[in-house]
Amino acid sequence: MARTLLDKVWDAHTVRTLPSGQTQLLIGLHLIHEVTTPQAFQMLRDSKLKVRMPERTFGTLDHIIPTTDQARPYADPLAEEMAVHMIRNMKDFSLPLFDMATGKQGIVHVIGPELGLSQPGMTIACGDSHTSTHGAVGAIAFGIGTTQVRDVLATQCLAMARPKLRQVRVDGALARGVYAKDVILAIINQLGVKGGVGYAYEYAGPVIDRMTMEERLTVCNMSIEGGARFGYVNPDTTTIDYLRGRQYAPAGAAFDKAAAWWKSIATESGASFDDVARLDGAAIEPMVTWGINPGMSVGVSQQIPAPESAPEADRSTFREALAHMSFQAGQPIKGAKIDVAFVGSCTNGRLSDLRVAAEVAKKGKVAKGVRALIVPGSQQVAKAAEAEGLPEIFQAAGFEWRKAGCSMCLGMNPDQLVGREMSASSSNRNFIGRQGSPTGRTLLMSPAMVAAAAITGAVADVREILK
Amino acid sequence: MSATTDYKRRQISGRGIPLPGNDIDTDRIIPARFLKEVTFETMGEHAFEDAKKQNPEHPFNSPAYRGASVLVVGQNFGCGSSREHAPQALMRWGIAAIVGGSFGEIFFGNCVMLGIPCLRASQEDLEWLQREISRSPQSPVAVDVEKQEVRFGNRTIKATIPDGPRNQLVGGMWDSTAVLLEAGVAIETTAKKLPYIAGF
Fold this sequence. Notes:
heterodimer; A: 467 residues; alpha/beta; Aconitase, domain 3; Aconitase, Domain 2; 3 domains; five-stranded parallel beta sheet; 19 strands; 16% strand; B: 200 residues; Aconitase, domain 4; seven-stranded mixed beta sheet; 9 helices; 32% helix
C-alpha cells in the first residue's frame, strides 16, 4: 500500500507502543529557547536526571531579546534573569547555544532551517507552537509544553498519538501581489481555526510545489493557527537545493546519500488521506484579518462580514471581535487606519520577506503618525539584508531597522503596542493582547501588505502600489 | 507532593465555573508579559488577568466561583501558543478538570502532563451544564474520567477523552518521564537505525 511521509517518519521514530496505547516517539532534533525551558531544566535537576542525547538539542535566545540596545545586562531585569538562566542551563548540561556572539542567533524557527539543522524525515520538537514551521523541509515538527521539554531532555522521547492526515491542495497559480502568507490565511479561513484539531496537514498542489523553501516555511508556520499541530511539504528538489551547503547539512558524498533518503520518505503516489481539502490559488487575494483569531480574515477588496454570516456557535466571538477592533460589519477592510507596522517574526522575518517589503518601501514614505519596524528573523538574515542594502532602503522610507528577535509578534521585549494602537503585522496571531497591550489591535497580512499599509497609513491593496 | 499522593485521576469532583465562548487562546489565559519568570509559582495570580480587568462580569472575578475546580468551556479552548504557563495558571488557581467542546491540542497535552483531564461534551450538554452551574454554583460537578461522563444534580452527560490520555490519567501514568525511561536501550536502538543519526 502506498504510504505517506507521516506513515514513514512516524514508524521510523517509533520506539514502542506505550501501556496507554500511545506511541513512544523518538525526537530527532530538539530546539529550545529561554522562555519555555528554565522550569524543565529545574525538573531535571530535581530528579537528578541527565540530558539523554545532548548532541540532539540546540538552543537560542529569541523571545525576550531587545531589538535596539542589546548590551547586557538588559534594561528589563526579568528579561536579563531569563537570559542568565538560559546561558547557565546550556552550560551546565553541555548544550550548544546560538547566542549573540555566534552571529547565528535568531528566532528558533528561522535558524533551524537556516543552519541546516532541520532536515527532511526528522521528528522535531520545541517548546513553541510555531515549531510546525520546520515541516516545510519535510519533517514532522510540532510544539510541546515545558514538562514535555523535560521529557525530551531526559529521554529524547515523547508520548504521542498519531494524528489523522488531511491533504491541503492549492491548485492553479497565484496572482502578482499574492504571497505565501495570503495562501495560509486563505487556508485557515476556509478550514477554520479548529478545522485542523486532530489532524496533520500535508500541503500539496502546484502552488505549493512552485513555492521557494522560505514560502513553504511561512505556510507550515501557521498550521497551528488552523488547529493542526503540524503540517509538512514533501521533500523535492527545492528542499534538496535549499539544504545543500548549509552548516549542519551533510556534506560531500554524504549529501547525495541524504538527498536520496530524503526523496524516499515523500508521500507515494496513490497514498490515501483521511481527508482532502482544495483551494484555487488563482482566487486568492491579498488577505487581511479583521478579528481576534487568524481565521477571521477577508480579501483586501472585501468587507468585514456580519456575525449573522457565521455559524450560530461562532456569532458571539464575531461580536466580541467587532467590539474589540471597533469595526462595523459591512465596513471595507481597505482604508482601516493603522498606528504601527511590523515586519518580522518566525512567519515572515526571512530575507525574501524583507526584500519584498523593501520593494514596496521604495514606493513611498512611512505615513505621518505611523511607527514602522523591520525586525530580521536572525543575525544571518540581518547580515544578508545589510549586504543587499535593504536597511538603507527602509531607513530612507522612514522604517526603523532593528536587531533579530521575536519582537512585536508577542511583545515580550520592549517592542509593544501602546493602548488601543492598531497594528499591521506580518506575524501570526491577532489574539486580544497578543502584541503587548491588553487593548491593542492586530491586523495580520503579508510583509508586502504591511509595507503598503505603512506608507499609506491605512490598509491598502499592495497590487495597486506595485503596478 | 507527599508520598501518599494518588496519581490516579479516575474521578474529580468539585464546584464548577462556567466560561462561555469559543476559541479562547492561551494568550488570553495568560498574557505573554507574565511568562518572564523562571518558575511557574506565580502563574495562578495571573490567570485571565487582562480579561478580568476588561470585563467585571468575567467568571474568574466572581466570588460565587471562588474555590471552583471544574472549568466548563466552549470549543477550541486553549488554542494558540504552546505555553504550559496557561494550564499551570489554571491549575494553580484551583482548576483540576476541564469539560469543553474541543481543545487546542498542545494545551490538551500539557494538561495531561499536569494530571488535568480535559473531556469533550456536546454543545447542547455544555450549554446546559454552564447554565446549571451559574444557577447553583455551590453544587458539585463530578467528572468521571474512567466512565467518561459528567454528573451534575440528577443528570449525567456523556463526556469523552481519547483512550491514550484516559489510560494515562486513570492509571496514574501521566507523569511520563519514568514511563518513557522504561524503554531503556530501545531508545538508542531506534536512534541508531535513523540515517541522519547513524550517518549517511
